[in-house]
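Notes, p. 3: input format for complexes.
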Amino acid sequence: MEKTLIILKPDCMEKRLAGAVLDRFQKAGFDLVAAKLMHLKPTLLKEHYAHIADRPFFPALATFMGKSPVLVAVLAGENTVARVRELLGPTDSTKAPKGTIRGDYGTDVSVNICHASDSIENAEIEIARFFAPGEVFA
Ligand code: UDP
Ligand code: MG
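Output follows (138 residues plus uridine-5'-diphosphate):
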C-alpha cells in the first residue's frame, strides 16, 4: 500500500470540480484516507514549493495557490504516486492529453487543477507537512 498527497488547487475549487476530480481517483481504485480544506499561507507555500521557489514564476504561483481555500488529501493504493501523476497528466495543461485531469480541466502551465507528489520519498514528506499522523486513516 502506497500513499500520495494531492492538493485540489484554487481553480479546481472555484470551478466546483472537486467532486469530479476525486471521482477520477476513486474510480481508478484509490482510497481517500485523509482530507481537509486549508487556506495556504506564504510560509507553507515556500516550503512546499522549495524546489521552484527561486524561479521567476514563483511569486505568481504563490499568489494563485494562496488566493482561496484548497482541498488537501491523501490517496492510498497500489503504485499510487506514479499512477496518480499519470491520471493528472503533464504540468502544462495545454500539452496534457484529453482524458487526463489536467488535459480536461486545466488552464495552463500554472493553473492546472491538482498537485500530486512526484516520488514516494516526497509523498511521505508532503503528507507529514499537511497532516498529523492521527489524521491519516491508513
Ligand atoms: N508552475 C508554474 N510555471 C511553470 C512550472 C510550474 O506556474 O513554468 C507551477 C504549476 O502550478 C505546477 C507547480 O508550479 O503544478 C509545481 O511545479 P512542478 O514542476 O513541481 O510541476 P508538477 O509536479 O505540479 O507537475
Ligand atoms: Mg511537482
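The chain is about 40% helix and 20% strand.
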